Amino acid sequence: MTRLVRTGAQLPELLAEIARTVSDSLGYRTVVINLYRREWNDFVVSTVHGSEEARRVLLGEVQQVSDWEPLLDMRFLQRGAYVVPEGEIDWDEHGASYKPDLPASSDPNAWHADDALFAPMRGADGQLLGVLSVDEPISGRKPTGDEIDVLVAVSEHAALAVEAAQEAARAKANRDALERLLAVSASLNGSADTNDLLEHVCTAISDALGFEKAAVQLLNGDGYHSTVASVGFAEGENNGAPITADQLERLLQPEFDLAGCSLIPHAEARRLLPERPAGYRSVLDGRGPHAWDNDWLFVPLHDRRGRRIGYIWADDPVDRLKPDLERLTILRAFANQATTALEQASQFEEIQNAYEHHRAVIDASPVAIVDFELDGRVRSWNAGATEIFGWTAEEAIGRVSPTVPPDELDFFLENMARIGDGLTVRDLDTRRLHRDGSSIDVSISAGPIRDAHGTVIGAVALLIDVTARKRSERALVASESRKDAVLRAALDAAVIVDHEGLITEINPATEETFGCTRADLIGKRFLDVLVAPAYREELAAVLASGTGPLIGSRVEISALRSDHRSFPAEVTITRVDVSDRLLFAVSLRDVTKRRERDERLREVEAKYRTLVEQVPFATYVTELGLPVRRRYMGPQIESLLGFPASSWLEPGFLMSRVHAEDHERVLAELEETHATGQEFRSEYRLIDADGQVVWVLDETAAVRDEEYRPLSLQGFLVDITDRRRADEDATPASLSALLPAAR
Fold first, then answer.
1. 736: helix, coil or strand?
2. Neighbours of 475 (CB within 10 A)
3. Cα 668 to Cα 583: distance, rounded to the nearest angstrom
4. Residues 214-257: tens digit of each pLDDT
5. CA 329/CA 306 separation, integer angstroms
């Protein structure tokens, strides 16, 4: 089934191969694929592998979504599939159904003719793509749980294959539309007749984008829009009264804008234009949320000055679906082509030449479009090519394509020669070089450019960057190994727990931390084997709901080692949402040593605080940088200067109490200490709470790290007022004693 995902087969052939593979590999005689149709919001039996009778009864049968609801009821859900036992559903009232001719059996495990087994096929976004139905097991018995698991896994891969085929079909349609867009762009020089060019645009929109009806309507001098080109309308068919410029303005609301197009639900259009009489009614409506329902699709046309000159109207999509963003983007490009046609016919104030319009369309393309000489030299290089490959147009034009790796140059030139012979290259997967030297995975389609005489004069190539897709494919292969490497390298214990609380994976750090082997833990209840009883109830609530304040938070709990000894641990629970179930990644860190270290630190700090608060001077700790910011001030400061210790923690408080005559000197000394970390020793005056002068001795030393960088400053203040006064009192007596000797 994995191989089928990569085959790139068309959807009908792919579904037939899927059904055959399921029948041959899993042993069911009848395999039915019910494919969901977005345009009708229903299911159609698109593939039947089995007997002719089964094919006759089932193939092409259509069932509504409501018909499937009782079959996909939760009471039938077993391991991802729906097992409907005999007697639960009245198949006669359920529409067309196939009942195999099976012998009756009294064995309760025997498969009954009215038993049914369905496996949903869901896309990557969870949307239902279809239902895989199997019947008539060759074994004649009801499937076991393991057999159901295999069927569910196969249905998931089948869904990938269906989704890939549908996406490939959409991508091909968009590529074809872009190629048609290029053809229209190349034909702009072929005619100067406005109507002829616009008819060409309408035809291209119808053919390339799948709208049965398309029309170009231009604003005339009376303020109305009149049809100048159309395709798909029968002669005399009612396509509505002309829309005025004011009515168009009311319709083109911002909420309806998609890629420059306005897609308006019919009810909204009638609400905006209640006075407008009934006009054209779509004939290719579908049913359901994705379907076309008489919607209004307008693409406004503007001249180069931004003035609205008309619009393109598209209706009746052949697939009966609302167009997606890519189709609307291409439709917008076709509208640009219509504008170009009008400009070429001198309908605008200024005329641009065909090459400029050609370049505008190409530069607006979401893919790289490159024009080559037949010898491989680049002639034109659009903005998409610059975005993908890094080279500007000035750097690329005139040289052999700089994106071609040297070892692929011969192959590149061989393809150019084939194109020169008139051949077209489509969907070539290869690698090209970015300007920075890195490799880019690309898908290339290229074809010849002919002159007016049909001679091939060059080649144009469309290059789509598929690096992300290729990278995701490679990443998928490597994801398991990366996961194992991360788990093994983690220093913390890492445990993966499923929605039932069972351990599904651990890393080596878990074995080392808890003293258990991987075999001891896998499949065991996480809370029972690794968490102390006091914390189990709180964590169980988190694992049951998958929500709460503890998700993503780091909290401390008591964990259990294998010998049932508890130890403190920090735990973080992260929710992991996967497609089919809920998982939790639990990280646990043993904080026993950190607790012991914190306790020792608190003891040391208490001893230090007790010591410094007994000394007869005020100690302090100061942060580096001015203004002075104390981190700690000893309580002795209050008896020394009258202010509480908390006041000294305010930035700048110290300098506000320094005596005016000492202020400049002390500030200069502090600036040098804070800048260099050198020791500070100074005597200066402070003003206490009573306004009295107090002399202090201030000594400071830097606390440094292991690289001798200052981290903070520690020091003390000592009251030296008495000594200073004694020194001042002693000075006059000394001078008097010296006077007689001097005489």
1. helix
2. 11
3. 63
4. 999 998 888 888 888 899 988 877 777 888 999 999 999 999 99
5. 19
